[in-house]
Design brief:
alpha/beta, uronate isomerase, domain 2, chain A, TIM Barrel, 3 domains, about 400 residues, globular
C-alpha cells in the first residue's frame, strides 16, 4: 500500500474513509415495519418530534394542552410555520429536518409544506427503511424493545419479526425505576408474583422468556440522574435479577443515566430535563461485577470527563454515544476529542437515539462531519511526529469508532 507523503493527502484520505465507512447504530427507538404505527417516519413525525416541540413552546404563546389536542397534521403545520418560516431553522433539531429532506432530494427553497408532503406520498415503508439506512450509511440499527409496553409485547407475540438490518435490545426500565409496577405487569402476563421471593424468581423467568423471543444484543435501561448503585431497591434488582441473568445469558447491560423526567409535565415528552450522574456508581457496578459487560452513556456534558476516566479503569465498561441533549454538534466534537485522547478507539463514537426513522440521516451526517474533523486533527498530529498511518490502519480505526469496537466488546 503506498505511503502517504503529505498532510494534504492524509487529511483527504481520513475524510474519505469516514464518509465511506458503514456504521452500526447501537441504540435507537425504531421498530420493524411489521409493527405498524409503532415505527414513526415521514415529515409530520419529524416536525412533531419532542426536540422541536420544546422549541415551539418556549418561542410562542401556544398552550401545550391546546396544541396536543390538535391532529398531528395540524401540529406539524404549526411547527413548520413557527420554527421554519417565522424563525430561521438554525437549531440542531430544525436544521436536522432540513438535512433529511435535502438528502431525500427534496427542494428546500420552496418552503412549502404541502409540496414536501407530496415527496413522501406513495412510500412503501419496507423499502423506505432500507433507503434511510443506506442514506445514513448504517449497516444495521439496534432497536429498543420493551416487553413491559403492551403494544410492543403484543406485536412480538404475533411473531412480527424484524428485518435483518434491525437488531433487538431488551428494555427493562420498569424493573429498575418502578419495581412494584413491573411486578404488576409481570403478573398480568401470567408470571407468579405473590411476594418478594416469588417476584425475584418471576423476574428471571420473565427475562429468560423474552430473551428467547427477542434474541437481544444487550439489555438496556434509561436511569434518572438520582440513580445510585448500593443500598436501595434498584440495586437489589440489579444484583438479584439482572446481573445473574446477564451472567447466565452472556448479555451486556446498557445504562443510559442522567434524565430528569417531567421537569415540565405540560410539555409531554418535551418536558424532560438533564441532571448530573453519579459516576462512582458506574465504577462500583463495574468493579463488583467484573465478569458482566456494561455499556454506559450519560446525559450531562458535565459527566463526560469522569466517565472517560472511569472507562480507562475497567475492561468490562464500554462508553458509547452522545446521548439526547449531548447530541449537539459542538458537544459531540468536544466529547469525541476527549474520548479519542483518553480511550483511543476503545469506545463507540455515537448512536442516533432516533425515534423517527428519518432522523438517522441527519444524525449520522453530523457525526461523520465531527468525527472527520477530530480524526484529521489526530492523525495529522501523528504525521507530524514522523509516524505514517496507512489507509488500512485508518479504515480499521474508523470502523472501530463507528461500531466495530462495540462488536469487539461484545465478542470478547
Amino acid at each position: 500500500m503506498p505511503t502517504i507523503t503529505s498532510r494534504t493527502a492524509l487529511d483527504a484520505l481520513v475524510r474519505h474513509v469516514v464518509a465511506d465507512t458503514r456504521a452500526i447504530d447501537i441504540h435507537t427507538h425504531l421498530f420493524p415495519p411489521a409493527h405498524g404505527q409503532l415505527l414513526l417516519w415521514g415529515i409530520d413525525e419529524l416536525l412533531t418530534y419532542h426536540y422541536l416541540l420544546s422549541e415551539l413552546f418556549i418561542a410562542t404563546d401556544i398552550e401545550p394542552a391546546v396544541f396536543f389536542a390538535l391532529p398531528k397534521a395540524r401540529q406539524a403545520e404549526i411547527v413548520f410555520q413557527e420554527l421554519f418560516i417565522n424563525r430561521s431553522p438554525i437549531t440542531e433539531a430544525a436544521r436536522g429536518v432540513l438535512m433529511v429532506l435535502q438528502r431525500l432530494g427534496l427542494d428546500m427553497s420552496c418552503r412549502d409544506l404541502a409540496e414536501i408532503r407530496r415527496g413522501f406520498a406513495n412510500i412503501r415503508v419496507d423499502d423506505y427503511l432500507n433507503r434511510i439506512l443506506d442514506l445514513a450509511g448504517v449497516d444495521y440499527a439496534v432497536m429498543t424493545n420493551d416487553p413491559f409496553a403492551p403494544a410492543e409485547a403484543d406485536a412480538w407475540r404475533r411473531n412480527e419479526q424484524a428485518p435483518a438490518r434491525l437488531k433487538t435490545a431488551l428494555r427493562i426500565d420498569s424493573m429498575f425505576n418502578n419495581w412494584p409496577a413491573a411486578c404488576r405487569q409481570m403478573a398480568d402476563q401470567g408470571y407468579a408474583v405473590a411476594d418478594d421471593a416469588t417476584a425475584i424468581k418471576a423476574a428471571r423467568e420473565f427475562l429468560n422468556d423474552w430473551a428467547d423471543r427477542l434474541l437481544p444484543m444487550y439489555m438496556a435501561a434509561s436511569m434518572p440522574d438520582t440513580f445510585v448503585y448500593g443500598g436501595n431497591q434498584t440495586s437489589r434488582v440489579i444484583d438479584d435479577v439482572v446481573i445473574p441473568f446477564a451472567r447466565e445469558r452472556g448479555l451486556p447491560l446498557a445504562l443510559m443515566i442522567g434524565v430528569k423526567r417531567g421537569v415540565n409535565p405540560a410539555f409531554g415528552q418535551a418536558g424532560d430535563g438533564v441532571g448530573q450522574s453519579d459516576i462512582d456508581s458506574v465504577a462500583r457496578l463495574a468493579s463488583k461485577h467484573g465478569d458482566v459487560k456494561l455499556l454506559v452513556t450519560t446525559l450531562s456534558r458535565v459527566d463526560q470527563h469522569e466517565l472517560a476516566v472511569t472507562a480507562r479503569k475497567f475492561a468490562n465498561l464500554h462508553v458509547f454515544g452522545c446521548w439526547w441533549f449531548c447530541n449537539q454538534t459542538s458537544i459531540i466534537q468536544e466529547m469525541t476529542r476527549l474520548r479519542v485522547e483518553m480511550l483511543g478507539t476503545a469506545f463507540t463514537a455515537n448512536h442516533s437515539d432516533a425515534r423517527v426513522l428519518d432522523q438517522l440521516v441527519y444524525k449520522w451526517a453530523t457525526t461523520r462531519q465531527v468525527l472527520a474533523d477530530v480524526l484529521v486533527e489526530k492523525f495529522g498530529a501523528l504525521f507530524d511526529t514522523g509516524w505514517r498511518p496507512s489507509e488500512q490502519e485508518i479504515r480499521r480505526d474508523v470502523r472501530r469508532l463507528m461500531g466495530g469496537a462495540f462488536e469487539e466488546f461484545l465478542a470478547r
